[in-house]
Amino acid sequence: MASEYHRGEMDISEQTATYNIFMLLTKWGSLAIAALLVLLVLWFCTPAGFLTSLGVTLAMTVIGVFVLRDKPDAAH
Predict the structure, then answer these.
(1) Higher pLDDT, residue 8 or 70
(2) Most buried among 10, 15, 26, 56, using CB within 10 Å?
């Protein structure tokens, strides 16, 4: 029984697009969850208060966006 599969001939653009979306959502979702956790922990579990917690959370979010943003590919 012959197989119809030939290695390297399948179009993988849909799989690549799905993987890229999954990685994008994972990356930014992780930052959002971490920022929310920092806000809630500092606000309710320390005497820092709301404004200090908000400031730390905003600083962490800005740094996270700077670190996680897409970078241009390095030319070799």
Answers:
(1) 70
(2) 56
Query: 74: which residues sit within 8 A by CB, 6+ positions away?
Result: none
Q: How many CB atoms lie within 10 A of CB 53?
A: 19
Q: Of 18, 34, 19, 28, whose CA–CA distance to 68 is shortest?
A: 28
Q: Which two three-digit tokens encode residue 68? A: 């996680």
CA-to-CA separations, 40 to 17, 55, 67, in angstroms, rounded: 34, 12, 23
pLDDT class for 75, splitting at 50, 70, 90? low
> What is the distance between the alpha carbons of residues 56 and 62, in angstroms, rounded to a whole number?
10
Q: How far is CA 62 from CA 5, 13, 30, 72, in A?
A: 48, 33, 14, 19
